[in-house]
UniProtKB/TrEMBL annotation:
Residues 6-87 form the Gamma-butyrobetaine hydroxylase-like N-terminal domain. This is Gamma-butyrobetaine dioxygenase. Its cofactor is L-ascorbate; Fe(2+). GO terms for biological process: carnitine biosynthetic process. SUPFAM superfamilies: Clavaminate synthase-like. Pfam families: GBBH-like_N (PF06155), TauD (PF02668). Keywords: Dioxygenase, Iron, Metal-binding, Oxidoreductase. GO terms for molecular function: 2-oxoglutarate-dependent dioxygenase activity; metal ion binding. Belongs to the gamma-BBH/TMLD family.
Length: 378
């Protein structure tokens, strides 16, 4: 609820019932007006362009009606109501955190020792609360397991269907992870693999990866996940100059492993938003191309920071290990969480299927479920 409101031409100042205060510019309020002439009632999309708003927009009246803000704009002589709760949720008149390398609210970084987030196949498919909690774990921790699933091929597609769609690549809608003769990728061998993000040579990278176990009687082959954001936090703390180098210069990645495919990208290993928030990690020794965008006098320091980040990623204290059983799968946020595999023997069998999906579908499904829950509570 709003307690008071005042206006001075181009700015409206409000005080909420809890005593907090906020200011809003007239141009911002007009652009975000909630009336049906500005926003489509069915989907909320904006019906006006920035050019439709008068350049001399101002507010000549700001009143409180039933705890909400009633604003009249000039020269349009247009009156719009802004609910107090909506204003509180969209306040921008506040101190902005500027710490470079911070993680977004709602993300929890981790090391070895945390219990792997997990959901049960039947519960997640049948119970909205279980599905919501599983999706929320992926959003917060960057990975989660799913247990007690079927062992039929292509079951992983049903995992992706819980929240979105498979992202098809040159590997097809999904790919087989088992030993091959003359493999096109080292993933198709029994070799151990350093923790890595997948497909760093794509732009954009697949933002989610699902690995689903169908058979696993081979010795070894445990899966390991590592929080790349936590590794980057350690580097920022211990070597801020090195952190700045990995975030400030693009690395290069390349894959030319099969006929007709030549994938290349140029992105930093540690990706930050313009305001310094950590938004992505790209780390894959197998797919690194020569670094040619780092100045000569910074190259040795860059490599030292690269080695240090790799040491953190390889640190046993950083990884969460588990061996997938048939019918089990796990999903990782491929922009954040690295996954590794221990080597495995030639005896027995190990058959996983993998696919990619997009994080926006998962986050959209989660947000829609949360909104529906709030609306039901009201």
């Amino acid at each position: 609820m709003l307690r008071s409101a005042t206006q001075t031409g181009s700015v409206v100042s409000v005080e909420f019932s809890d005593g907090s205060q906020a200011r809003f510019h007239a141009i911002w309020l007009r652009d975000n007006a909630l009336d049906p002439e500005t926003r489509a009632p069915g989907n909320g999309q904006r019906l006006i362009t920035i050019g439709d708003i008068p350049t001399d927009i101002s507010v000549n009246a700001a009143d409180i009606v039933n705890g909400d803000l009633l604003v009249t704009f000039q020269p349009e002589n247009k009156t719009v109501t802004f609910p107090s709760g909506w204003l509180a949720d969209h306040t921008y008149d506040r101190a902005v955190e500027q710490e470079t390398g911070r993680v977004a609210p709602g993300i929890t970084t981790w090391e070895r020792g945390i219990a792997a987030p997990s959901g049960d196949w039947a519960e997640v498919h049948a119970t909205p609360a279980a599905k919501r909690n599983w999706l929320a774990d992926v959003a917060e921790y960057g990975f989660a397991k799913l247990t007690n699933g079927p062992t039929e091929p292509e079951s992983l597609l049903k995992v992706a269907a819980l929240f979105g769609y498979v992202r098809e690549t040159n590997y097809g809608p999904y790919f087989e992870v088992r030993t091959e003769v003359n493999p096109t990728n080292l993933a198709y061998t029994g070799l151990g693999l350093q923790a890595h993000t997948d497909n760093p040579y794509r732009d954009p990278v697949p933002t989610l990866q699902i690995l689903y176990c169908l058979e696993n009687s081979a010795e070894g082959g445990e899966s390991i996940v590592v929080d790349g954001f936590r590794a980057a936090e350690r580097l920022r703390s211990d070597n801020p100059e090195g952190f700045a180098l990995l975030a400030g210069y693009p690395a290069r990645f390349e894959y030319v492993g099969s006929d007709g495919v030549c994938l290349r990208s140029r992105r930093p290993m540690i990706e930050l938003s313009p305001d310094g928030e950590m938004v992505g990690i790209r780390f894959n020794n197998r797919s690194s191309a020569p670094f040619v965008d780092v100045p000569f006098d910074q190259m040795e320091a860059y490599y030292a920071a690269y080695r240090q980040l790799g040491d953190y990623i390889d640190d046993p204290a950083m990884g969460v290990a588990f061996k997938l059983e048939p019918g089990e799968s796990f999903i990782v946020d491929n922009t954040r969480v690295l996954h590794a595999r221990l080597g495995y023997s030639g005896s027995g069998t190990r058959w996983l299927q993998g696919c990619y999906a997009d994080k926006d579908g998962l986050l959209s499904t989660l947000a829609a479920m949360d909104m529906a829950k709030l609306e039901a509570a009201e």
